[in-house]
UniProtKB/TrEMBL annotation:
HAMP domain: residues covered: 203-255
GO MF terms held by the record: ATP binding; phosphorelay sensor kinase activity
Organism: Komagataeibacter diospyri
Keywords: ATP-binding, Cell inner membrane, Cell membrane, Kinase, Membrane, Nucleotide-binding, Phosphoprotein, Transferase, Transmembrane, Transmembrane helix, Two-component regulatory system
Record CDD domains: HATPase, HisKA
UniProt-recorded name of the protein: histidine kinase
Pfam families: HAMP, HATPase_c, HisKA
One GO cellular component, as annotated: plasma membrane
Predominant cellular place of this UniProt entry's protein: membrane
Length: 464
């Protein structure tokens, strides 16, 4: 059946299909581990650099030097042959061979009556053999043979002449700058050493990433571990520090929610017991006078209102403000809303200094209003005057809420932010706990200290 004619079949676009095939090929060829890919990223440029330097060195410098050395040798031999041809007497020939050999640093001998059995060169690694053969053919009219495989690093050049074979013996260093394998070994060895050093450093970096991944995996499985020691590169250290902060925050979140669940059963037990007793005391037979039941009904309604108040506080604490989007908020406008609400309730509230003017903070508006409302509500119960002020730090915005109340003892300045630590009769003790939870969710900090008005000062630090 033709797939195109089938109404329920859709053919994959060619471009998308080719991309999938290419991705599969890349996954099969490239290493899957981060260490392997990092080593590959470091090895390929290193290998390419060594190959380019080798090509540039031997393609330019060595070839130029090789051509010059072979050209000088071929020219010296050609001039000697010309002199031997011009002065054919045995005495002159011997003097020419001795003088040319002494001046050029060569050992020249003429073997009369001999002939060459080979021509060209027994090749060696590098361009020098081809250059020398080419220069000999260009400068010398007769056949020649170059023997590179002599003992004691010597090279023997034999040239066929009409009277015999001219043999020239010279040191190999007169023609060859350095063996090719020596430079190749040096380049490969240095590349290998650099690669091993890079592998050791990369292994340490990857080890820190693996430790972070392992800790995250164990934490996700509920196996809480100790905080990770930040190590490695700066980015990996920041990731480890962020993970530790996230871990502490989640643990604190779970602990607080567990405490709330435990507190629900504890705090609701008393009003539920009163309701059960009130219902048990109601008459079950006979005629009931509604007026006589009004006090009991009022008490039960009060218990229900109290439970509603407690449950609303628990739900507010557990719900949080995570779904709200962060926006830029002017601190002065935020303070104005809080001060107006306080004055409506009869409290003496004012706004102090805000430096600089127009100071703003990025955060969740409703959540920050809730924080300030909880803080000022707690201050209003213990003070008659409340003042709000703010200033900008190096990388944060600091909000101050001061009151003229009795203050908080230094030993209790941390415990008042725990759930169910209430300072008034019938309170749930969740207001400041909710405030701290929201501030921590913004990446900030909230704390208590002595205030300039004689009471307590709540210091809220928020990132810009």
């Amino acid at each position: 059946m033709d797939m195109e004619s089938h109404p329920g079949t859709e053919r994959m676009p060619p471009v998308q299909g080719w991309r999938r095939v290419r991705e599969r090929l890349i996954r099969r060829v490239l290493p899957r581990s981060l260490l392997g890919r990092m080593l590959l990223i470091g090895f390929i440029p290193l290998l390419a650099t060594q190959a380019i330097s080798l090509e540039l060195f031997y393609g330019n410098y060595l070839q130029i030097v090789s051509r010059r050395l072979s050209g000088d040798m071929a020219t010296t031999i050609a001039m000697t042959l010309d002199l031997l041809e011009r002065y054919p007497s045995p005495a002159d020939r011997q003097w020419i061979l001795d003088d040319a050999g002494r001046r050029a640093g060569l050992a020249m001998t003429l073997h009369e009556g001999e002939s060459l059995d080979r021509r060209g060169s027994n090749h060696v690694l590098g361009p020098i053999d081809d250059d020398l053969v080419r220069d000999l053919r260009a400068n010398v009219r007769w056949p020649s043979f170059v023997d590179w495989k002599q003992a004691h690093h010597r090279v023997v050049i034999r040239v066929q002449t009409p009277s015999g074979v001219l043999q020239v013996v010279t040191l190999r260093k007169r023609l060859d700058v350095a063996p090719v394998w020596l430079f190749v070994a040096w380049a490969s060895g240095s590349a290998l050493v650099l690669f091993l050093i890079a592998a050791l450093f990369m292994r340490n970096q990857v080890r820190a990433i693996r430790r972070l991944a392992r800790a995250a995996q164990l934490f996700g499985l509920g196996r809480d571990t100790v905080p990770i020691m930040p190590e490695g590169a700066q980015e990996i250290r920041k990731a480890a520090i962020a993970f530790n902060r996230m871990r502490d925050r989640i643990n604190r979140f779970v602990e607080q929610r567990t405490t709330v669940l435990a507190g629900v059963s504890h705090d609701l037990r008393t009003p539920l017991t009163r309701l059960r007793l009130s219902l048990a005391m109601l008459p079950r037979t006979g005629t009931v006078n509604a007026a006589e039941l009004q006090p009991d009904i009022a008490d039960m309604i009060g218990d229900i209102v109290e439970m509603e108040h407690m449950i609303e506080g628990y739900l507010s604490f557990a719900r949080g403000e995570g779904a709200e989007k962060p926006v830029v908020i002017r601190v002065e406008d935020l303070f104005e809303e809080i001060v107006v609400a306080l004055r409506r309730m009869g409290a003496q509230a004012s706004i102090g200094s805000i430096t600089p003017a127009g100071l703003s903070v990025t955060g969740r508006g409703n959540a920050l209003r809730r924080v300030l409302n909880n803080v000022v509500e707690n201050a209003r119960r213990h003070a008659t005057r409340i003042e709000l002020s703010a200033e900008r730090g190096r990388r944060e915005v600091i909000l101050y809420i001061d009151d003229n109340g009795c203050g908080v003892d230094e030993a209790r300045r941390e415990s008042v932010f725990r759930p169910f630590e209430s300072g008034k009769e019938g309170g749930t003790g969740l207001g400041l706990a909710i405030a701290r939870d929201i501030i921590h969710a913004h990446g900030g900090h909230i704390g208590l200290e002595a205030g300039p008005l004689g009471g307590a000062r709540v210091r809220i630090v928020l990132p810009k």
